[in-house]
Design a protein that fits this description.
Helix content is 59%, strand content 4%. It is mainly α.
Length: 341
């Protein structure tokens, strides 16, 4: 449609392409932040508190487990390696991402265990382990979307095809387990959960609305490659809206909670979980040897680590996409005897 050569889109590892000037526009920024403030003012309007779950929090009085302390030591050690430039570790400097996030996942599970006496990693190991390969496939999908918009590029990863694929796949496999573990931890705070009330989402013609959203997303995704500088936010909102529309039309369970009744606990828990992970992703990335940088048209200003401040909002819908995929895998796991033990 644009007359571009297909070769750069098909090259692997991905090739960095010129998408024009990466600028900062005050007009776009004002409209963006005004819209975000209005949205959150509507979502966070004070409402009647929900009843917190009785079994949330430290009901068992468990102590922080020994393996949690070992995980903290592991995390600290690889954090030091990731940001340091120890000559004896030069060969492994680019491989610190996965050990760091393995440590993070273990620490989150240890905190859940301390607060509740159990954790997802030990309670349902089969389901937890299957999240790793699913996570790799999940994030490779976003890497495909990025071929068209070039919002992030990797530095220091000039390697062959096989090494790139293996290394990237192993790194991507930690995304879902990390967000899921963080979401489970947030659910153990009853005071936080009780405040996650929101507007009641009810539509006069829900089927018509779902079809309209689906049609809009399909058309918009087709145009992302044509207008990448304007439509790149669809990378984070489009998959979620498409899945929700399809799920509603198919009569599937509501993976994001009973929004019709104003129960937004699932939404806020997963959105905040992704934002927490996002802060750690960006922080640890900032001083690592192999890292990513961003190219965000019109909003590339006020960097926090390597991420433009406006870009952190993208973690919120991304967390909901993590919730949807995890719920889908959970339903599949419940129907599989091999993963329920």
């Amino acid at each position: 449609m644009t007359g571009h050569d297909l070769a750069p889109f098909l090259k692997f590892p991905p090739e960095v392409r010129d998408i024009g000037e990466i600028d900062f526009s005050w007009n776009v920024a004002i409209v963006y932040w005004a819209g975000m403030i209005a949205l959150f003012a509507w979502l966070l309007k004070p409402r009647v508190l929900l009843v917190a779950e009785r079994n949330a929090g430290n009901s068992t009085g468990s102590s922080f487990p020994l393996w949690g302390w070992l995980a903290l030591a592991w995390l600290g050690f690889f954090w030091w390696l990731a940001w340091g430039r120890a000559p004896w570790f030069a060969w492994g400097q680019k491989f610190t991402f996965t050990p760091l996030w393995t440590g993070y996942i273990l620490v989150m599970n240890a905190l859940v265990h301390q607060r509740t006496g159990r954790c997802p990693m030990l309670e349902r190991p089969g389901f937890f382990l299957i999240l790793f390969p699913v996570s790799a496939i999940f994030w490779w999908t976003f890497e495909y979307y990025n071929r068209f918009v070039q919002n992030w590029i990797y530095l220091g990863s000039d390697v062959g095809v096989l090494e790139y694929f293996i290394h990237a796949t192993v790194c991507f496999s930690t995304v879902l387990p990390a967000v899921y573990s963080t979401a489970v931890l947030l659910k153990t705070f009853p005071g936080l959960q009780a405040r996650m009330r929101g507007p009641r989402l009810k539509f006069k013609s829900p089927v018509t609305f779902a079809r309209a959203i689906l049609l809009l997303c399909v058309v918009a995704f087709l145009l992302v490659g044509v207008r990448p500088r304007e439509l790149y936010p669809l990378l984070w909102t489009g998959p979620l809206l498409t899945w929700m529309a399809l799920s509603f039309l198919a009569g599937e369970p509501e993976d994001l909670g009973e929004l019709r009744d104003g129960d937004w606990r699932q939404v806020w828990t997963w959105a905040l979980a992704a934002l927490v992970c996002g802060l750690f992703w960006e922080m640890w990335n900032s001083l690592s040897l192999v890292k990513w940088i961003y190219q965000v048209p019109h909003l590339h200003g006020v960097l926090v680590f390597e991420m433009p401040l406006a870009g952190f909002a993208g973690y919120l819908p991304f967390g909901l996409e993590c919730a949807v995929v995890t719920a889908m895998i959970r339903r599949w796991a419940l129907n599989s005897d091999s993963l329920t033990h």
